[in-house]
Amino acid sequence: MRQVVGKPSRVRRGRARRTIGLTGIAALLPVVLAGCSLDDAFYLGWPRTRPTTQSEQMFDLWIGSTVAALVVGLIVWGLTFWCIAAYKKRDTDTELPRQTKYNLPAELTFTALPFVLIGVLFYYTVIVQDEVTEMSDDPYACTQVTAFKWNWQFTYTDADCEPLTGADGRPVTETGNSEYIPIIVVPNEDDVRFEANAEDVIHSFWVPDMLFKRDVIPGGEDQTTRWEVDFNTEGTFVGRCAELCGAYHAFMNFEMRVVSPEDYETFVNARVEGMTTPEALELIGQDAYATTTHPFDTDPASGEAS
Fold it and tell me: In what residue span(s) does the Cytochrome oxidase subunit II copper A binding domain sit (predicted)?
């Protein structure tokens, strides 16, 4: 009987090619199935519009960290596949490969490099964190935020964060309900402050395009959450509660309008004079009602949200 020489090697090579092909297809599937354009892919799922300086800094930190992680991954994958190819047992091999132990330079390198990477990431994280949490002594504008089950109330204040009083003698507020999405209007300026409290349980003030959230905690002045942002673009942005707070947590939306400083002053003055939020928004050429989200049906008898 004639012996076929080399057939097992050809079979193994064929299996290797199929394995490589399937691996390539598996790597491409997430990109294809995600349905992202090439431009969107480079944003790694982050919003394209980032209305604050702080969100730009956090975006840069995240992208830099991701690129560093990919570089490390490529090096590890490259070394792994190189070892697989270079030290693969062949038919002519009759001895075990030479064992290498106690390679001091390699051990020092692979111990020191992770600490260098951790140190660099920690350094830039602290810098961005300090920028995000920085508070000014004299904010340009201030708004009080009150979260409750299951909506929001915004109180317009002066630069000292003292509530403005309207024509009726009461604070100028914007309160949402199950049929109305509340709209908070802020100026496109630096040092715009927010002071937030909750009336009942923990909520969370979250505008996704700003790339961070702030927990809103009950307990009065001692639990007030304060932060500032530097807006750098005008626009309309959806806001949500990011803390599971009860049955209608998912319906607890609001809308943020970033307008010019001049329009902001006109809007606030109109509210002080007695105009409603829709009327004051129309006065400065804005849509009277929310455009990024809509009220949900919160009637349990309806069976589902409309």
Answer: 138-270
Residues of the chain with pLDDT under 70: 1-45, 93, 97, 99-100, 298-306
Please give the backbone phi and psi of residue 127, each rounded to the nearest 5 degrees, phi first: -60, -50
Q: What is the reported pLDDT for 305?
A: 46
287 CB-side CA count, 13 A: 15
DSSP H helices, the chain, are 7-34, 38-41, 53-86, 104-133, 261-272, 277-283
**Which of 274, 275, 282 is CA-nearest to residue 257?**
282
141-285: CATH number: 2.60.40.420
Q: Which of 272, 207, 195 is nearest to 54 (CA)?
A: 207
Q: Which two tokens stand for residue 193?
A: 């402050």
Task: List the chain domain ranges.
Answer: 9-42, 46-89+104-134, 141-285
Helix axes 104-133, 53-86, angle to 10 degrees: 160
- What does DSSP say about strands 183-187 and 253-259: parallel, antiparallel, or unpaired? parallel
Cα separation, 55 vs 177, in Å, equals 29
